UniProtKB/TrEMBL annotation:
Protein's UniProt keywords contain Manganese: yes
Active site (record annotation): H87 (proton donor)
Residues reported in the UniProt entry to bind Mn(2+) 2: D51, N86, H176, H210
Family that this chain belongs to: Belongs to the MRE11/RAD32 family.
DNA double-strand break repair protein Mre11 second domain ranges (all copies): 276-334
UniProt record, GO biological process: DNA double-strand break processing
Binding annotation for Mn(2+) 1: D10, H12, D51, H212
Name the record gives this protein: DNA double-strand break repair protein Mre11
EC number: 3.1.-.-
Textual note on the cofactor: Binds 2 manganese ions per subunit.
Chain spans, region Disordered: 391-432
Phylogenetic lineage: Archaea, Methanobacteriati, Methanobacteriota, Thermococci, Thermococcales
Record-linked Pfam families: Metallophos, Mre11_2nd
Length: 432
């Protein structure tokens, strides 16, 4: 006889992604579907590896949603074991998880002030601390479920997982942490708390949460698995990406979203139908962007959330994107991607390469020594009064409600306040 369980993570109930209330409803629906599928699969128990809620202080609506959904496995006598994630743990004694536990809807694992002893929980004292763990018995077999809430990197500097968690027989370890090897696979950077080697040996299954992508690897005889978030988290978590290679779009299929059904400690992915996220990246001028994006548009489903990332050498009006993409949500991102002046030599004239304001500054400064470079930059950002060129540039920047990618525009707003008018006239005098 083997155990069969569902492994769900990063549900993020109550998350109004992009400030859209209907996204919270879609996150709720994904959780409900996952739980129903797990119950249909007749699992022995369900694991929720943290971030059930998007915030540590969920709204009454969100708490009600959690109660309604978690009542489904309760009616089928399927226990749910859970740990708190970084999004929904609390620094206070009681979190929303404790509330759900009081209602008999979940069994919380980890460090506690009081002992818990019942059909599904037992308490151990390790290194002077009480740790509540889960137990599940089936026939003459039993499995132990260890785990704890999300802990910061600072905690891991002072503590080792193996000091607190040792498998006694068949055991699962549930954690909400980033593992270095996985982070490197997906993101590069060094945002992690542990390495694979830090996971204590001997567990048959490491039920992970925190990183919203799916990842399965092995550790000794055990399996380390992240199911990923139930819904797509951002445009990096795309269903489909189109990348411009200079002459055409190269399609790249992303990964499906869902959770894991684990039998005999081997995970099987269960896909959920979630909101599609499409990600388009292009580096082109106005006419090429218009032509190529129009050509690509029929491939993007109406219900999609779409990001169009345009890298340009000089800004152009992108409002046409709203006409060609009739999607549910459109996110436009623009950024400057100018080639260096040296490489552009011969290929571009100065007037094509520099903005009117920059040309004006170059003309004024000439070959002058650039010790006063900072001041010149301020001048560029502040604009030149007698030149309406500056206004034109500002105008273009205003017309694009993008994710503040027009960096100079943003800096200009900030810097402008810092430069008193008197100073500016001094500058003009200095520039002659
Ligand atoms: Mn999360």
């Amino acid at each position: 006889m083997t155990f069969k369980f569902a492994h769900i993570a990063d549900v993020h109930l109550g998350f109004e992604q992009y400030r859209l209330p209907y996204r919270a409803e879609e996150f709720r629906k994904a959780f409900e579907t996952a739980i129903k599928k797990a119950v249909e699969e007749k699992v022995d128990f369900i694991l929720i590896a943290g971030d059930l809620f998007h915030r540590s202080n969920p709204s009454p609506q969100t708490i009600k949603d959690a109660i309604d959904i978690l009542s489904i496995p309760k009616r089928s006598k399927i226990p749910v074991f859970a740990i708190e994630g970084n999004h929904d743990r609390t620094q206070k004694r009681i979190s929303a998880y404790h509330l759900l536990e009081s209602l008999g809807l979940i069994y919380l694992l980890g460090f506690r002030e009081e002992k818990k002893e019942n059909e599904y929980q037992t308490t151990e004292r390790v290194n002077g601390k009480l740790i509540v763990k889960g137990v599940f018995e089936k026939g003459n077999k039993s499995v132990e479920i260890c785990g704890m809430k999300y802990m910061s990197a600072a905690w891991f500097e002072r503590n080792k997982l193996s000091d607190y968690f040792k498998p006694g027989g068949d055991a699962i370890l549930m954690l909400h942490q980033g593992i270095k090897e996985m982070m490197e696979r997906f993101y590069g950077g060094d945002y992690f708390e542990i390495r694979l080697e830090d996971l204590p040996d001997g567990f048959l299954y490491y039920a992970m949460g925190h990183i919203h992508r799916r990842w399965v690897t092995s550790k000794g005889l055990g399996t380390v698995a992240y199911p990923g978030s139930l819904q797509r988290w951002d445009f990096g978590d795309y269903e489909m990406r189109y990348r411009w290679d200079g002459s055409r779009f190269l399609p790249q299929v992303g990964e499906d979203k869902g959770f894991l059904i684990v039998e005999d400690f081997r995970p099987r992915f269960v896909k959920l139908d979630v909101r599609p996220f499409y990600d388009i990246k292009i580096k082109a001028n106005d006419s090429v962007a218009r032509r190529e994006l129009k050509r690509l548009a029929p491939k993007i489903p109406d219900e999609a959330f779409l990001r169009v990332d345009i890298e340009w050498e000089r800004p152009f009006d992108v409002s046409f994107l709203h006409d060609i993409f009739r999607v549910k949500y459109l996110h436009i991102r623009t950024r400057f991607g100018r080639v260096s002046p040296l490489r552009a030599k011969g290929a571009t004239t100065a007037s094509e390469f520099f903005t009117p304001v920059e040309l004006k500054v170059i003309e004024r400064v000439g070959e002058r020594d650039f010790e006063e470079f900072e001041e010149v930059i301020k001048l560029i950002l502040g604009g030149i009064d007698e030149s309406n060129a500056a206004e034109k540039v500002e105008e273009v920047q205003e017309s694009q409600k993008t994710e503040s990618q027009v960096e100079r525009g943003v800096k200009a707003q900030k810097t402008e306040k810092k430069v008193p008018p008197k100073r500016r006239s001094d500058l003009l005098a200095w520039l002659g």
